[in-house]
From TrEMBL:
Name of the molecule in the record: DDE Tnp4 domain-containing protein
Domain of life: Eukaryota
Annotated source species: Hydnomerulius pinastri MD-312
Length: 51
């Protein structure tokens, strides 16, 4: 499943997804989208960062 693969990539690169959430639900729903944007930005502008 592509969604599971995406979350696997994000969990590997961003530790914020590993512990139990400490944020309100209104913040939690925004975190995956923000992390995808950061991931894509880094891959575009500095592709060697996470090789």
């Amino acid at each position: 499943n592509i969604i599971e693969q995406i979350f696997g990539i994000l969990q590997h690169r961003f530790d914020i997804l590993l512990p139990a959430p400490e944020y309100d639900l209104s913040i939690q729903v925004r975190i995956p989208t923000a992390l995808c944007a950061i991931h894509n930005f880094i891959c575009t502008h500095n592709p060697d960062e996470w090789d």
